[in-house]
Amino acid sequence: MTTNDLDPQNLARSCHEALILASLTAGPRHGYQLALEIEEASEGAFRFNHGTLYPILHKLESSSFIEGTWAEPEGKRKRRQYELTDAGKKHLDRLRTAWATYFESLFKVIGRSEP
Amino acid sequence: MSRFNAFLHRTEERLALPKATRSLILVEIAADLNDLFQYYLQQGLSEEEAAERAEEKVDMSDEALTELVRIHSDTRGWTDRMVRVGKPLGERIAMDLIVIFFFISAVLMAVETEIRLLDHLSDFIWPIAGIFLALLVSFLFQMTRNLEGVSPLRLRQSLVTPLFLGAASLVVGFAGTGISMYRALMRMAATPEQAGPIFSQALLGATATLAAALLVTLSAGIVWFILGGRVIRFEDRATKIFLEVK
């Protein structure tokens, strides 16, 4: 994947996909867990609305990058949890490369801020 | 879960999807709503504030809903409408019988007209036989597979396999017919005195191969129909179980 694979009109989506896939490297998560963890890990920089989360999760699942299963912890209600697949790990690697290249190119043009 | 019933009902009304899919999405949303509600309670919010905040967080924009519908429609769409035609048991049995009737009719016609497929088949029968074998293996695997815990999206995607194999058989059948006839015409041009027998033999071979390909395609259609019905019955059963705990 190159920066060309990051559709300028879908940068936000690609960013969300990378965030979700990266969060799932730590293990299976529920939708709400993902949103909270991403928000905490990014110190509030990425605030996920769950409404945005479902289409992305379901899209990643239909692309076989994640696998959704119904978990039923004892005494608790059924929950949908998602797990990263091998294809998802590869896709995450491609996204990491694409984003790194994208930001390098961006900083070449706009420059970095002085420390 | 009565606290969020109104919210879930509003979301349900905006989800233009078949009932089974819609219900599974709503159960997922309901679980997240409840978890968020508990989370906000732990953060010190009152019950009303926590519920309001949870709903705000889970509420989907029109664009998000459209996207969700599009994702699920990709794997459903016309296949779902076809399989779901016979939703009541009586209609479903009638649909099954019609498909089986067509298959038996095709086989009976072949027997009745004494089409001796095996005597005239061309080399192209081997890829068609391979496709039929793949169809059989796929069918047996899907029928004996334990569907519990399998994602609905993945189940839907598995329905594409028989359709793909059916289409492949058709393509090989037509391509085989064309190539066989082309070869025959070349031989006829080279040996005009043998043109008659060569042509009739080629025509027989091409027709027999095409008939075999069509039978495999028809079988693929039946397999798809049976598997589709199984997936839908599973989804409906799963939905009922989920809704019981709602």
Question: Which features characterize this protein?
Answer:
heterodimer, A: 115 residues, alpha+beta, Arc Repressor Mutant, subunit A, three-stranded antiparallel sheet, B: 246 residues, mainly alpha, 2 domains, 11 helices, 82% helix, disordered C terminus
Low-confidence stretches of chain A: none
Largest interface: A-B, 25 and 30 residues
Strand order of the largest sheet of chain A: 1-3-2
What is the multimeric organization of the chains shown? heterodimer
Report how far the terminal alpha carbons of chain B are from each other.
7 Å
Q: How many β-strand stretches of chain B?
A: 0
Count of DSSP E strands of chain A? 3
CATH superfamily caption of chain A: Winged helix-like DNA-binding domain superfamily/Winged helix DNA-binding domain
Task: Tell me the Rg of chain A in angstroms.
Answer: 16 Å
Structural class of chain B: mainly alpha
- Principal-axes geometry of chain B comes out as elongated
The stretches of 5 or more residues of chain B where confidence is low (pLDDT under 50) are 242-246
Please compute the radius of gyration of chain B using only Cα atoms.
27 Å
The succession of helices and strands of chain A, N to C, reads HEHHEEH
**SS strand fraction of chain A:** 5-15%
> Helix amount of chain B, in percent?
over 70%
Cα distance, first to last residue of chain A?
32 Å
- The helix/strand class of chain A is alpha+beta
Question: Into which percentage range does the β-strand content of chain B fall?
Answer: under 5%
